[in-house]
Amino acid sequence: MQCVGELEYRGLKRKLDKPDSGGQPPKIFVGAIRRILHPLVRILITHGVTFPMLSEILKRVYVDTAEKHFALEGVADPSDSRISLITRVHRKDVRRLRNEEITDSLPLASASLGAQIIAEWTGNNTFTDKKGTPLTLPRGGGAPKAPSFDALVASVSKDVRPRAVLDELVRVGVVEQTPEDHVRLVKTAFVATEDFEELLVHFEHNLHDHIAAAGSNLMGGAKPFLERSVYYDELKPQSVEALAKLAEKTAMESLLAVNKSARSRSKKDEGNKSASKRFTFGVYFYADDEEKQ
Fold first, then answer.
1. What is the pTM assigned to this prediction?
2. Which of 8, 78, 145, 216 could potentially form a cystine with 221 if both were Cys, beta carbons 3.0 to 4.6 Å apart?
3. Is residue 56 part of a domain?
4. How far apart are CA 91 and CA 52, in angstroms?
5. 164 near 113, Cβ under 8 Å?
6. Range(s) of the domain holding residue 170
7. Distance (Å, rounded) from C-alpha 221 to C-alpha 232?
């Protein structure tokens, strides 16, 4: 069996954000939410987030979301009673949560120094050849404007020593150092393998934006976001392994092309009063046994 997820949203008329005639959300919507939550709850249990803890987190999210997106027209600040009415969070909890300070531990848009350096290495023509392939860079020295690893690091941050950055990138297998004291980029994506906080930044950012894009499309947003997938079942493990390699190769080509254009536009847009937008373009590949979720 095969299925290609080329979904078209422009003709979407029915909005599933509204309850049915009985005041309840559609059963198929509830079923979809249940399935979506399975992998999330598995992660939560693994990291010690119990149901009571999640319940308190959800109260906060419901109150914050209602306050931000569901105010009455012409009313900037919805009352505690209105928020309680549309979320069914008790009014005492609404009042308490609205008065508590939010302490988010990680900024959504943060990116590691390693990720920034690789983005510059693959997107800046100074550090690539005419075909866009990242150059093998000398450690330092040479002409003042000649490309080097030290110059690459300095173009991103002057607050860290290039030697320390090099040691870390070698340690995680992103670059390798040649006998001639040159630095070669081995992986064109920075993936933290041991730093939990680094992994959490990408987990938060990527899932937030993916759900936001899919949710906007589901609610019939004026302009559909790109959100496509290809999926097949009844495949042998060897086939999935081969497809994973193909997906990584083609996905990285797309990511590098978008990164290069985004870097160029970012330099041009910097300082412009209308430059208030951000974007995320991502890819993923997942495989599992059919019966698992």
1. 0.69
2. 216
3. no
4. 19
5. no
6. 113-185
7. 28
